[in-house]
Amino acid sequence: MNLKVKWIDLPIVRRRFYLYTLAAVLVFVLLLLRLWYLQVISYEDLFDRSVRNRTRMLITEAPRGPIYDRHGVLLVDNRPAFQISVMRQDIVQRDELFSRLSSLLDVSAEQLEMRWQEGRRLPAYRPVPLIIDVERELVERVQENSIDLPGVLIEVRPLRDYPDPDAVAHVVGYLGEITEQELKNASFGEYRGGDLIGKVALERSYEDSLRGDKGQQLIEVDVQGRLLRMLQAQSSEPGKKVYLTVDLELQKAAVEAFGNRAGAAIALNVHTGEVLAMVSLPTYNPAQFARGISPDEWRSLLGDRRNPLQNKAITGLYPPASTFKMVVALAALREGIAGTNREIYCPGALVVGDSRFRCWKREGHGAANLKMALRESCDVWFYQVGLELGIDKLSAAAKEFGFGSTLGFALPGERAGTIPSREWKRRQFNEPWYAGETVIASIGQGYVLTTPLQLAVMTAALVNGGQVLKPQIVERIEDWEGNVTQLFEPQLIRQLDYSPQHWQAVEEGMVAVVGDLRGTGRLAHLDWLSVAGKTGTSQVVRRLSDEEEELLTGDEHIPYRQRSHALFVAYAPVENPEIAVAVIVEHGQSGGRVAAPIARDIISRYFRNSGE
Amino acid sequence: MFDRRLIYHFDWVLLLTVLMLAAVGIMNLYSATANWSYGGTPLYLKQLVWLGSGLFIAMLVCLFDYRHLQYLAVHAYIFGIGLLVTVIFLGRTTMGATRWINLGFINVQPSEVIKVAIILLFARLLTKMATSQGFAVRDLWRPALWLLVPTLLILKQPDLGTTVMVVLIALSMLVFAGLKRATLVWLAILALATGVVGWFGLHDYQRARVRTFLNPDADPLGSGYHIIQSKIAVGSGGIFGKGFLEGTQAQLSFLPERHTDFAFSVFAEEWGFVGCLLLLLLYLFLIAWGLYIARRASDQFGLFLAIGVTAMFFWHIVVNLAMVIGLLPVVGVPLPLFSYGGTSMVTMMIGVGLLMNVSMRRFMF
Fold it and tell me: What is the pLDDT, as a whole number, of residue B21?
């Protein structure tokens, strides 16, 4: 072996060794300093993040509170429903899985794909619901094939159940998945994507009471979000029970009385303002929403020109027509314009300026006093009185009764309506007020718009000594230990100031409307119970000219949307009033012929029930 | 040829240090993969087999006198280049990079072979060229050329990590051999220029890594995920760590690549600052011992060989650790003797064998 050996200069090499060793040590010190920074100085922050990394708050849904009627009959409850969901991370072949599911369940694969896309915003540990409310038979089919359906889960989830959906839809409302907008809203802080929330009516306005408190489970998850174990749990608190003032039987009777007409009816306890019944027709089936409404169903509801989704009792605005006459009469009496016996001659029309305002009765009523003017609904009497009263006094009197403003009703969407005045018209149109407008306002037409709810409140005030009561629909709210957290209490909005004689004069007129054979509301008459009321027929379009009217022989010649609305307000019994009812039948043509019998049926059912 | 003195001079300190590091590494690997559910041989056992094979290869490397390697250096280099060219045509592509050659029973990574080849070649070159005056710029064209060819081939795969390693190893040897001051300045300028030009030559994913390194929170679930999760793992270990098998980041799979490039994060999470301190001291000792071996080498070739191997260890350790604790961008560099991987283990054990060889023959003339 002859290996060549060559030395390089030793002191230089030694220095380089020192330098290299020093450099290595320095670099390692730097690494250790960084480790010190991470593990000692930033420890708490990073440790926190590692905890948050591996734990998730799992929310357990709280059963939503049930809703009862005034007698404790269930209106809305929860029922367990099957739901087919998938765990995202367990899916291997989505297309294949969906096509298998779709042939098994007779659902289109596109629909499954749609639900899947929607569900992707849910957190990873939550299964994506594909089909909600599946029949037991289909569930069994899925179970039998579960080996071929990896990742598919059958979950049981509470769904809203409505024993009598038609009778209560507009009172209770429905639930829907929370929208992005609602989620963003600060007051919806308790919610997460995918949650159900009350969308309309009571489910909406009493959301806070009904929803209960969610439970929480602190769980440990791995990087895929799979549940590993539970660390902590806090059980959920079911939603409170809400008892309503409405009577299910009365609701049903009202719906039945309407037949297939459109409109709304409200019944109030005249002394307390409790809503005994409130229906709006046509109605819809809230159960459709509970299981997730299909686009077709939704389109057909929205497309229906009779607006099944609208609660006409509180959001429908109608000219009150002749049902408004009591208010005009009272104002005139108080102002001393008309004594109870003031007679005005009705030749069938009143001429004001260039315009001729016709009475509904073309041949005229002849000489009429207040009682007769109410009984036979003479328009000319009120034209004349209204004209003398002036729009501003008329308007003030109407507003006292609660018209023109909302009444603070518990359901969302209540509308104020319109009571015109000079000031109002200037603001609205920047135009002066014309006398002719006063004329038509005094028979509740023209600019005057009211809700059926306001008419019911007015009727109650007419017979309870002038108390304008806040209409209320919740009798009490109770938690599951039986503690009452909210209890009904009558609330007086305003005490009206009219003399007893004036009240009596108007009441007499209303009694005659039903009780007298010549009364326009004769069809509301009951043999066994004294009923009083007032008819109203409000034009939707302008009043037809004589020539036009002569061409018509019956309702069928007028297109539906041009037919007049039929109204009737009533109370009973006359001697000691308990219940006030307001009925509006959209395009019903005649208050006396169409609306009065509906009011009669509601009243009749009310007293039959309470008599039992 | 075999000398009794060799056994007498056997470097037990080196072997023990290496075994200790490998043992800690395998224990850590056991923890890092404890929650892996799929079947097959557990990774820590595989790594144990690789360690055994590596030790065997290291012993083989010890058997003959390293001085013979001077004459094989060019052959090794050409062999390495040959493999790198082969990989271009026959390589297996995984995750967008072609780095492997499938030899049927085993996958070989030519870029690892070239690391050793470069060390051998540079040791030979520098032995011939080194003077006490240091190199002028014009002296460097030959080493530069030798280095450029494999570097470009590896960059093409692309494998930035290995490229950087090869260049750093070569530079470390070159600097040790001595450079004129002016040469140092020129090199610094060159490095800067490479940095600027390199930025535009980088692949998108590589550029993203650099950007992510500069601001990992910009994309916490995307490219920043590795760095953030690794920092959380390391930091949440605290002073004393969460305990063996107790690291939530590792055991719940939040740490990516936790058996390979990010194995140290698992260790840091479970053993804390104290464990890291001890582990780093052990690594530092390995480096210092490597330098010590170089210093005691009986000839210049042995010296440069030991320097080269030590530089290889040093740069792998430092770049991997710095990456894991967020001091450097994520480049795929394994932690020697610690990260799972047969090729890395074998390369490092060849290095250990070379060190051992130099150490054992320090008194031979």
Answer: 96
DSSP letter string, A139-161: HHHHHHTGGGSTTEEEEEEEEEE
The Cα B219–Cα B225 span in angstroms is: 7
Report the C-alpha gap between A60 and A218 in whole angstroms.
11
- Which residues neighbour B21 within 8 Å (Cβ) at sequence distance 6 or greater? B279, B282, B283, B286, B336, B337, B338
Q: What is the mean pLDDT of residues A363-391?
A: 88
Given the structure tokens 């989704």, which residue do they identify? Answer: A309
Q: Is the pLDDT of residue A521 over 70?
A: yes
The conformation of residue A591, written as its DSSP 8-state character, comes to I
User: What is the helix (H) or strand (E) element at residue A474, kind and residue range?
Assistant: strand A474-478
Of the candidates A77, A412, A473, the residue with the CA atom closest to the CA atom of residue A247: A473
**Whole-angstrom distance, CA of residue B315 vs CA of residue B326:** 16
Place of tokens 């020539």: A547
What is the widest separation between alpha-carbon atoms in chain B? 62
Find where tokens 């929330």 sit: A197
**Cα atoms in the 13 Å half-sphere on the side-chain side of A599:** 40
Cβ of B273 within 8 Å of Cβ of A39? The answer is yes
What pLDDT is recorded for position B223?
53
Tens of pLDDT, residues A550-565: 555 555 567 777 788 8
Residue B133: other Cβ atoms inside 10 A: 11
Going by the DSSP 8-state scheme, the letter that residue A61 receives in this structure is: P
Q: Could you give the CA distance from residue A413 to residue A310 in angstroms, rounded to a whole number?
A: 10
Write the CB contacts of A538 (distance below 8 Å, at least 6 apart in sequence): A318, A319, A320, A321, A444, A445, A564, A565, A567
Residues in A lying within 8 Å of B, measured between beta carbons: 1, 3-9, 12-14, 16-17, 20-21, 24-25, 27-28, 30-32, 34-36, 38-40, 42-43, 45-47, 49-51, 53-54, 220-224, 228
Nearest-angstrom CA–CA distance, A377 and A374: 5
* CB of A457 closer than 8 Å to CB of A273: yes
Return d(Cα A80, Cα A67) in angstroms, integer. 17
Q: Coil, strand or helix: which one is A564?
A: coil
Residues 269-328 of B with CB under 8 A from A: 269, 272-273, 276-277, 280, 283-284, 287-288, 291, 294-295, 298-300, 303, 307, 314, 318, 321-322, 325-327
Question: What is the interface pTM, i.e. ipTM, of the complex?
Answer: 0.93
Residues of B in contact with A34 (CB under 8 A): 322, 325-327
Reported as a single tens digit per residue, the pLDDT across B227-241 is: 888 888 999 999 999
